[in-house]
Every structure is written in C-alpha cells, then in structure tokens.
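Need fresh eyes. Consider my entry:
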Amino acid sequence: MAEISRRVALSLLLAAPAVLVSCSVPDRASARPTPSRTPTTQASRGMPASLSNAALPRGPLAAASFGPTGRHWPSRTPRPSDAFDLVVEAECTWKDISRCISYVAERTPHGKGCVLVKPGTLPGYGAGSSKPPVLQGIGALGRDYRVLVMPREGSASITFSDAIRMDAVKGVAFAGFWLFPQSIVLTSVQDFAWARSKGQAFNITAGGSGPASQIELVECVTPEAKLTDADVWAIRTGDNPWSDIQIVGCYLAPSYKSATSTAHCDTLQLSGSSPGADLVIRDSVIFASTNSGFIPSDRTSGIVFDHSLVVGGDRMVVRYPLPPDANAFASGKPAAVNGIGTVDAISAVSSTFVGNLRGQWLSVQNCVASIPRPPAVTSGQFSIDLSLNAIGADWLDARAPLPTDEALRLAWSL
C-alpha cells in the first residue's frame, strides 16, 4: 500500500505553537489524561518553504478533471501545515483515540487541535449499521474547526483488522487512514469528515442515535471493481433523516452482480423511509454498476451533480471489464442516473453523463448527456453528444486517471 509521507507528522510538529501532549490511556480508566511537555526544535506558526512546496499535488492525478487530485480538503478542518493550538499523540487503540479526541475537543473549542495516531493495527467489528461501533458519542458541535485525526507516520503505518462503524461522532475529521480492503459506515455522525482514504465502501446511515448531517467524504477512493450482489456505497435513513452531505473529489468503481443474481446493484444508492436532503457530488467520478451509477430514493431532494462524471451504458467496461461469471446486462445497459419516479429532486451543473438518465430533473446548466432524448428538466437543458457512447480508455485516462496506490501517494503527499 502507498504511504502518505512522514512529512505530514513533521509539519504538524513544526507548526504547533503550543505543546505536544501524550494522551495515552492510563491503567485506571477513570483517570484524566495528564499533559506532558515534549521539547521541540522549532515552534513556527507556518510550514517551512521546503515542506510547503512538497505539499503540492504531483503525479498523474494532479491534473485530473474528476476524482482525487490532492487539491480537495474538508471545510472547517485545519490542514497539516497550519499552526495548531494543541497536538496530542494517541496509542493505536480506539480507547486511546477516543480519549484523545475528547481531550482536544474540550480544550480547543475555538482553536485548532490535532490527534496523531501511533503505528499499529486497529480492530474492527464490521461495517453494518447495527455492528458495535469503534467510536461512539465523542466530539462536539459548534466548534470553529473540526478536530483533525491523522496517522502519525503515514497511512501505511496503521492497518485495520476488519471493517468499522463510527456512531454519533461530532466535530471531527479523519484524514489519511487507508481502510482497503475494509469499509466504514458512519451512523448518525454530524459535522464530520473522512478524507484521503482508500476503502471498499464509505457508507452513511441516519440511525437510532440521531440524524446524520454536515458530512464530507473528501477524496475517498474505491478503485477496484468487485463481483458482488451489493451496492458499492450507500446513504441510508433509518430512524432519522440525513442532510447536508458532500462527496468531493471521490472515485467509485462499480460492482457487478453474478449471472444468476436477482439483486439490484448500484454504485451509489440512497434508500430508507425517512427523508434525505441536500447531497452534493462535486469533482467526482462514478462508474455504473450492473443496474446504475446513482439511484435516489423517492424521499430525497436537493441532489446536485457539480462538475462530476458518471460513466454508464457500456463504457465502464472499458476500464472495468465484466468478470466471466457476471451478469451481462440482461436487463439492459446500466443507467448513469436512475431517478425514475422522482420529480425535481436532481440538478446538475458542468457535469457529463454517459448512459441513460431517468426522472424529471430540477435544474441543468452546462451539462452533456450521451442519449438522444434526455429527461425533462424544469429549468435549463442538456447538451447532447452521442460520441460519448464510444469513449475509450484514452478519454477516461485523460479525465479520470486510475487512482493506483503510487498515484495516490504522489497526489496526497504533504
């Protein structure tokens, strides 16, 4: 697996104007973390020029039109080159990470705080919405900045034994944790970000702990197609609604169902009995699965494709050929967006769609479709480019290069 440079941690240490704190959990679970001053060689409020230059994205992804480029970062989240009010180190255990997040959150309600996690292996208990969470009920809303949590020594320094669930975590951003081939489900999180990560799935559920809102998935990458009877990513409502979710600079490979399967496989599926509102898919690329690239539920609204690419029809097989045992699109070529039955739920701006489009769309500006009869639009219209139905590998490589580990390492090095 590619590694995010150790200069990430170094830049944090150089930028911290206050104190580096060891926040490991003592033997007595009830004890409070005790700060211990760690000498540093420099307490600069900015990052040296050499590190600032190294932070610029490099490699084939840096100039990509869609997907990860190394240029996206969660909002209201300090960057590693910022000056921090408090930086703490956590042992590679969920218990210690939880304690350190709480410690930083309590002491920096209006400042910038960071938790650096030491190398090791973190356990997981599954990514189902009812699986035991690895973190639950920590953090706080109303912060000026989210608490940043990162591996101290690069993404390759931390591994995961299984998929994970986080529940009701608030005001926190995780960056640089590579889950693959594991997945994560975020249940009832608020003011939360997960960034610069490779994983099999990044799912969101508004579960029994409360609504899911103000969530950003930033440069999250699922780069490999899979033969499975399941969706790739999902946003679901359970007992509560979701709102204000952003998928930014992400890359979603397809899932192909088996030849005998009756499952409905979508790359990004919205579902559930409670409402969902305000989903923005920006600068991202979605490759359609056996049935579609994107499918909303009939209780969702405010969906916007903002400068994104959805590849359906039969063009995703240019990059992701059908496995021998896969369904050969017996029900028809996969749609780019299957909004059938929705009215004014979907909008798009500066986006490209290869494959069928369904539903009545709300607003369309500067968008291109590959079909001769695009769906009805309340405001605006699609441009039509039938040549998109014949795009090849070169076209895709120029706009959405394959995010290999080496390409991601170059794009995300800091």
